[in-house]
Write a structure and sequence with these properties.
single chain, 337 residues, alpha/beta, Rossmann fold, 8-stranded mixed β-sheet, 10 helices, globular
Length: 337
């Protein structure tokens, strides 16, 4: 048994589905050991994972497949900054899944293209007969301090992250709504990707942070809208060492630290959220890494007072309130000093 959170490596509780279907445990992400059962917690569920050709998304796709899901592996195959295309990464993940006895199909649509996002949703339905889960994971980085950031750098990051979350979510939600209106039950999941850079703030990432903060708010509002259709919506704030982060100082660490920053720690969280077992969880942001698993709490009203119609008096009130208010969080979620 590997070291780490034991909740990810225990037998399924009584009442979970079991049958004689072979469990493709050899496609589990490295370091995640099987539970010795025949059926995974995502058995038969149809899942889309965007940006699944490499990094965190690849780990999601492999574990979902190992837990019995049929997976649409989406990846445009672009570079770290979003430039270029390459169908190879998505195809390689699909080959790895199918060689181990799982079911998967590749998709190379651009998630930020509205028509492309619909084609991806349609592919899942046409190929596997339905859709249960969308994991919006695709992303790029074009970091720059605000004074030096170009319009193109801003637009590219906002487009991939924010519109690339909206477009698949829109088409998936429309599919689930039509099923609901037709009298069919959904037990569906929309799992989005935010970041501590967005919810806590990190210099040099106004574009990325703005997009990720927007995704956190998007997820909460969407959870309120889609509950009536049998859809839960949550967001993950992952921290991992991938090609997006290896040149941000995260690559210069020892072996133990590298293991703690492996994407393998995040995949179990997303896999559980994708399963039917998470039906009661919605509208939440979950921080996930090899160092912490936590619930990020959103905006709450802090100290308050009656307003004033004089600017000097208003300033005095605000100053007094700030003295009692909790400071913003740092990148570790603790009070910023």
């Amino acid at each position: 048994m590997r070291a780490g959170p034991t909740s990810f490596a225990v037998d399924l509780p009584d009442g979970c589905r079991r049958n004689d279907r072979p469990h493709p445990t050899n496609i589990r992400p490295a370091g995640i050991e099987p539970r010795g059962i025949a059926v995974g917690i995502c058995e038969g569920r149809v899942c889309i994972v965007t940006g699944a050709g490499r990094g965190i998304g690849r780990e999601y796709a492999l574990m979902l497949a190992a837990e019995g899901a049929r997976v649409v592996v989406n990846d445009l195959g672009g570079a770290r900054d979003g430039s270029g295309t390459d169908a190879g990464p998505a195809a390689e993940v699909v080959a790895e899944i199918t060689a181990a006895g799982g079911e998967a199909v590749a998709n190379t649509d651009n998630v930020a293209d509205f028509a492309g996002a619909k084609a991806m949703i349609d592919q899942a339905v046409d190929t596997f007969g339905g859709l249960d889960v969308v994991v919006n994971n695709a992303g790029i980085l074009r970091d720059r301090m605000l004074t030096n950031m170009t319009e193109a750098e801003w637009d590219a990051v906002i487009n991939v992250h924010l519109k690339g979350t909206f477009a698949p979510a829109h088409h998936a939600a429309a599919y689930w709504r039509e099923r609901s209106k037709a009298g069919e039950d959904n037990d569906a999941r929309l799992i989005n990707t935010t970041s501590v850079s967005g919810i806590y703030g990190n210099p040099g990432q106004t574009n990325y942070g703005a997009a990720k903060a927007g995704i956190a708010s998007f997820s909460f509002i969407a959870s309120l809208e889609l509950a009536r259709y049998g859809v839960t919506v949550n967001a993950i704030a992952p921290a991992a060492l991938t090609r997006l982060t290896e040149d941000l100082g995260m690559g210069q660490v020892d072996e133990a630290a590298r293991d703690a920053m492996s994407p393998r720690w995040i995949a179990p969280v997303v896999t559980w959220l994708a399963s039917t077992e998470s039906a009661g969880v919605t509208g939440r942001v979950i921080e996930a890494s090899g160092q912490v698993l936590a619930i990020a709490e959103g905006w709450h009203r802090g100290p308050a007072a009656r307003p004033a119609d004089d600017p000097v008096a208003a300033g005095e009130i605000i100053t007094s309130l700030l003295a009692d208010a909790r400071p913003p969080a740092d990148m570790n979620g603790a009070d910023r000093s």
